[in-house]
Specification:
four-stranded antiparallel sheet; 8 strands; binds zinc ion; 29% helix; alpha+beta
């Protein structure tokens, strides 16, 4: 395990008593119609009443944000510049800039300056500090859930933050922001990548699916995806089965 999780329970904060006082006041002033009105109104959280962002949680379930998924801005090898710019801007604003792409205009801080070193299944991994909580959730979930004979897997090599871009043609790897993780490149191929990745023996069978080519159990892939990671094995062009990237909202995670 990489660490323990914080409880998401906030405890009793007096909201119940305040709601009851409000209810009684309305009842005194307006009688039965007030009761009907209260019944019809949707419940409003304390955060919404004070116009604050949603409370952070230890392990919120979330899906990758669609506009950040590669296939939203690269289709059949052609990049939609505006959509790519939007995704880049989001990443720079949330995580910091990376050198060489003009992203300093969105955020003066470098992404790598926010990197932390942690252990993922016992292996050292450097990753952006905002994504570290999500990775703890993944590891905890996998430890608890992926225990069947077909679901066990022991990583031997993991990679996180990098400073050299592995994409060509203007794309920016999420490894540069520190929000991507690779697991065992020699067991989990990227058949749409440049050589030597695409010369992996598992890529010879062109009819095989990414799920068939990877050594990663489905339970592991599910474990990442439930906490906002996107599995790049799903990318129709790359089928990068070693690669997970956090495309959820980091502001929903308790640090
Ligand atoms: Zn990768």
């Amino acid at each position: 395990m990489i660490g323990c999780l914080r409880s998401s329970h906030s405890g009793y904060d007096g909201r119940g008593a305040a709601t009851m006082r409000q209810f009684l006041r309305l009842l005194t002033l307006f009688g039965a119609p007030a009761i009907a009105l209260l019944w019809l109104l949707p419940s409003v959280s304390a955060a919404e009443r004070t116009h604050q962002p949603r409370a952070r949680q230890a392990c919120p379930l979330q899906e990758p944000q669609q506009f950040l998924i590669r296939s939203s801005f690269v289709k059949h090898g052609v990049m939609d510049e505006a959509a790519h710019e939007r995704a880049l801007r989001y990443r720079a604003e949330r995580y910091g800039n990376v050198a060489g792409f003009g992203l300093e205009r969105f955020n003066k801080n470098r992404a790598y300056a926010n990197a932390v070193m942690l252990r993922f299944f016992g292996l050292p991994l450097e990753i952006h500090k905002k994504v570290a909580p999500a990775l703890r959730c993944v590891e905890r979930y996998i430890h608890r859930t992926c225990s069947g004979p077909e679901e066990r897997y022991t990583p031997r090599a993991v990679g996180g933050l990098r400073q050299n871009n592995t994409y060509r043609g203007g794309e920016v790897s999420n490894h540069l922001f520190g929000i991507a993780v690779d697991i065992d490149p020699n067991r989990n191929p990227c058949c749409g990548c440049v050589s030597p990745w695409s010369s992996h023996p598992a890529c010879r069978n062109v009819k095989a699916t990414a799920f068939q080519r990877t050594a990663l159990p489905r339970c592991w892939i599910n474990g990442f995806e439930r906490f906002g990671f996107y599995w790049l094995g799903r990318d129709p062009e790359l089928q990068d089965t070693m690669h997970f990237e956090f495309l959820g909202d980091p502001e929903r995670l308790a640090p």
